[in-house]
Amino acid sequence: MSLARHKRFLGIDLGGANIKAALMNGDKKVIKTIHLYTPFWKNLDVVNSSLKKIRDDFGETEYQFITMTGELSDVFKNRKEGVLKLTKILTGVFTTPKLRILLHNMQFISPRKLKGNFSSIASTNWLATSTFVSKKMKNGIFLDFGSTTTDVIPIKNSKVIAIGKNDHERLFHNELLYTGFTRTPLMSLSQKIVFRKRKIPLMAESFANTGDIYRILNLLPKELDIQETADGKEKTFTASCRRLARMVGLDKENADVSEWKKLAENFYKIQERLIYKSCMKIVKSFDPETEINIVTAGSGSKVLEKIIKNLILALGNKKTKHLPIRNFIFLKKNIRDYEVASCASAIAVVDLGLDLFKSQNIL
Amino acid sequence: MSLARHKRFLGIDLGGANIKAALMNGDKKVIKTIHLYTPFWKNLDVVNSSLKKIRDDFGETEYQFITMTGELSDVFKNRKEGVLKLTKILTGVFTTPKLRILLHNMQFISPRKLKGNFSSIASTNWLATSTFVSKKMKNGIFLDFGSTTTDVIPIKNSKVIAIGKNDHERLFHNELLYTGFTRTPLMSLSQKIVFRKRKIPLMAESFANTGDIYRILNLLPKELDIQETADGKEKTFTASCRRLARMVGLDKENADVSEWKKLAENFYKIQERLIYKSCMKIVKSFDPETEINIVTAGSGSKVLEKIIKNLILALGNKKTKHLPIRNFIFLKKNIRDYEVASCASAIAVVDLGLDLFKSQNIL
């Protein structure tokens, strides 16, 4: 029995729209996860209350391991200010000196040592999760389809071989696809969309987002439907059709339900193509004999399953396999699939923290 | 001397983000204009206060002639509800029975006769302005580059020959380009943008809009810079560069001013191409010997001048001319160019109302 089994460790992924947290014991068993929608571009105070809720729900923890991406929010002047202010909120909530923040080199630092490390703290959550995955398998792709973005990370010989480190380079190399499961405004997906066999230019308004698409296609379960809608109205099939209709300059009453479903399907296909293409590029970079694992996470991981199924079919070989990230995690039984998928980054960061501390005999 | 010279008539264009109004006397001289930023998708009450301000500023008027497009806002369930609710607010402010609403057939109706006319009331402002222009010239294009959208309307033999009547058809036929001078989110303009000679996928966030582009390019004068910014921060060159940088996953500090200017220029070029292409298509539909007038209006009409200059250069003939809409309007001297351009639709609707009433001997 390990000395740390009864100790509790906390992992937090502090994103720009969502905060995810995972509680792990010293045997690396995940005890609990929390996913809180925290849209702090309106008001930074909500970060404070979400973190307090996590602290109070999870109780006393030995160490808190943090990864963040929220510093990119436009509530901050720049990423440096973002890292500083978010860290200040963190240290206000977790008063213990046992707060540790992840760096790009997979080391952790104390908040007291922020200076000089700002750019190394920004945008680390994808690295946490993909590094975690790289320890469990040899070759493949780590895919995280979150509310706002998608990570497409190549892993070779158990190493993360992503080229981009910051947001800009990651965008350029298609390792960060700025397309998500629920928050993405439909106007950003394309300039035109096929409706009734004609290509219609989209209205450039925040009328609808991908949450509407997956609500209409019945791929967005209630548990994951946690953000507000574009018009602030209901999270129903009908209200989503209403929002979707506006994108092409129509009212819901101008077409029937099957036509709105078809239109939703066409928007879905744009996201599918983006993710599919990025995966295919990586798959083709491997030797044809290589066994490739595609590991999926994120609130939209059910959608990824659909996309990967098509990809594996298209490849027509048996060397490519799909593995949900759950397969790599030691979990308390009552934690559900969608919770693991959504909070994978928080689980990963606490797992990495424990590994590092154990290797340094801190635990 | 006409009987109506000392009477006052009001024209209002009730848009989804802006309300424009023009006061005209019976000799069709424009006495005054007002342009009020009225973002009512957040709260419908602002429509009421903007209309009251217009009523109080302009004083007693004989008739009020209304054109609207605001019914498309997602504060309403659909366009029908939009027309109904906006009309209700109008009748609450202008208690006289002399309120008249424009229909697609260029007739006006009293608010009491709304029933059965909803779809004929929706989206008429482009028709008002282009019909007004069509009375003044034979062949050409009417261009209105507003805060949110651009109208590109062909006129042949003094007739508006646009194909689309509703928003959906107008989008399809490129007669309504959903791209504007200030409100358009940059994420809607393209999936990628050239920065430092590389095509960078855009962040799908409401980080910046076209107002930032024209602020950086020094084409957005203070008088027209009336809407809030994407992050709620300053309307300065520096703050606009900050917002622009976020679109490609960077901070302002990551590049120098000349690079942000170049990036802004690249976004501008996307809008330029859209407008240029739609105009060129119409120009080419005319017989090569035809004299073509391109008439410009809208808050962004200075930008249109730039685009048309290039178009005329590319055509290399002397048959195509640019005319600002001001040339067709009888104005009180103190009204400035940008006021006429911005409020052209309001001027047009009151002008059309007066023409019709005179022809029917109502005045």
Structure description:
- 2 copies of one chain form a homodimer.
- The first copy, chain A, is α/β, with parallel strands linked by helices.
- Chain A folds into 3 domains: 8-68 and 70-122 and 329-359, Nucleotidyltransferase, domain 5 (2-Layer Sandwich); 139-181 and 272-326, 2-Layer Sandwich (Nucleotidyltransferase, domain 5), CATH 3.30.420; 186-269, 2-Layer Sandwich (Nucleotidyltransferase, domain 5), CATH 3.30.420.
- In chain A, 37% of the residues lie in helices and 20% in strands.
- Chain A contains 11 helices and 14 strands.
- In chain A, a hairpin with a 4-residue loop joins strand 7 (140-145) and strand 8 (150-156).
- The first copy, chain A, is globular and about 65 Å long.
- In chain A, 51% of the residues are buried.
- The model of chain A has no long low-confidence stretch (mean pLDDT 95).
- At the A-B interface, helix 5, strand 10, strand 12 and helix 7 of A face helix 5, strand 10, strand 12 and helix 7 of B.
